[in-house]
Design a protein that fits this description.
Elements: H1 23-33, H2 35-38, H3 41-50, H4 53-68, H5 72-75, E1 96-99, E2 102-116, E3 121-133, E4 135-145, E5 149-157, H6 176-212, H7 214-229, H8 232-242, H9 249-262, H10 266-279, H11 283-290, H12 295-303, H13 308-331, H14 343-347, H15 353-358, H16 366-386
Helix pairs in contact: 3-16, 4-16, 6-7, 6-9, 6-10, 6-13, 7-10, 11-12, 13-16
């Protein structure tokens, strides 16, 4: 397609709009064009985190796990203290949907227990003639919900007068699945409370060392290095041994939480110290000093928020260490003690190799520990990458 040139002296055609000028529409256009430039750092972090699929899956999984601790009594098929002396060391039962080619729904087969006189072992055999259909949102063992009011509603229950042990039972005939759900309440929360304690100490010690420098930095750094040089497990064991045996379960729980928090702040303190060394020379810090702000206000209101995203990523990587610490201490018999139930206490049932060989389902509590540790690590990796959304 060809364009003809206008004749010499003829007026040139113009493309300027003759419509009235609307400044509001221009402001809206500029706002739309610069929306990405004015987006907050938290939103940019979220956008980048969403691209990390494994971190999002881990976040959803952790949200489900932490939500479940508020509904433990409802989710567990049995109460924590329920025992069945006729089902000691019963192996896991399979849940079926079809019986003889027809759809029945979720059910388990009945069981018969026989005593093997050769090795004096209980042998449980499924009886295909007994079909025990599971019930949902049903009445079962009574419990006191969060210690506030009595209830007996469960998400799933065995058939009336029957039993259901999806993950088997322990040496006292207690349901392993129910005890894992109850143990999650302790093992998951002790990690969060321990991280809260360690973060307060880490930010205070690291903030003072990085902001003031000089002899303050020298003294606090040497203390941090001494604590880091001591092996963790022996130090945990020594601190846990100090807890009096006469303490109540709640005090023991708080004591273990404080121990884990008091001994795990050194890494965060060094990270905060190195970050504040670079931030304390910024102009806004000098302006705050000129206006008379104290060191506590400058650190808490101006410096720490500048790298809060990095602190959040560090927290997700610290929680697994807390959970493993509690599990190790309880497994060694130096942490929490019954009647408190945690994943570490459940694993004490499987300390003997002979028990593991005969009753391997007692190792099931290690599965949620591994899944939680992996989920926190994957989420921490995603948050660490999203902490700098401009990369």
């Amino acid at each position: 397609m060809t364009h003809q040139l206008p004749e010499p002296g003829a007026p040139l055609e113009h493309y300027v709009s003759t419509a009235p000028f609307d400044p509001n529409s221009m402001a809206l256009h500029v706002e739309q064009e610069t929306a990405g430039m004015t987006t907050s750092q938290w939103r940019l972090m979220w956008w980048k985190l969403k691209r990390h699929r494994l971190a999002i899956v881990s976040l959803v999984f952790l949200c489900i796990m932490y939500t479940s601790i508020f509904l433990t009594e409802f989710l567990a098929p049995y109460a924590l203290e329920t025992r069945n002396l006729n089902a000691i060391y019963a192996p896991p039962q399979s849940i079926h949907l079809f019986h003889e080619g027809s759809l029945v729904g979720p059910f388990v087969y009945g069981r018969k227990m026989e005593l093997n006189m050769t090795n004096l072992q209980r042998v449980y055999v499924d009886d295909p003639t007994q079909v025990h259909k599971l019930r949902f949102f049903c009445s079962g063992d009574s419990y006191k919900f969060w210690g506030l009011f009595d209830a007996n509603i469960h998400l799933v229950c065995p058939a009336e007068g029957q039993n259901m042990y999806v993950l088997g039972t322990d040496r006292l005939g207690r349901d392993v699945l129910s005890r894992i759900l109850y143990g999650a309440r302790i093992s998951l929360t002790i990690g969060l409370f321990g991280v809260a304690v360690s973060f307060v100490l880490g930010i205070i010690v690291g903030g003072l060392a990085g902001y003031h420098g000089g002899w303050v930095d020298m003294a606090l750094t040497r203390i941090t290095e001494v604590l880091q040089s001591i092996p963790s497990i022996p130090l945990w064991m020594a601190m846990a041994a100090i807890i009096p045996i006469t303490w109540s379960p709640i005090l023991v729980y708080l004591g273990i939480t404080l121990i884990l928090g008091l001994l795990d702040w050194t890494g965060l303190a060094r990270a905060v110290r190195s970050k504040l060394f670079s931030l304390r020379e910024e102009d806004y810090v000098t302006a705050a000093q000129v206006m008379g702000a104290g060191s506590g206000r400058i650190i808490g209101r101006h410096l720490v928020p500048g790298f809060m995203s990095h602190l959040i990523a560090s927290a997700t990587l610290t929680v697994p260490g807390m959970i493993l610490g509690e599990t190790a201490l309880s497994f060694l018999g130096l942490g929490l003690r019954p009647p408190i139930t945690s994943w570490g206490i459940l694993l004490t049932e499987a300390r003997s190799v002979s028990v593991i060989a005969v009753y391997p389902w007692l190792l099931f509590p290690i599965v949620p520990v591994v899944l939680i540790i992996l989920a926190f690590n994957f989420l921490g990796d995603g948050l660490r990458d999203a902490a700098d959304p401009y990369k």
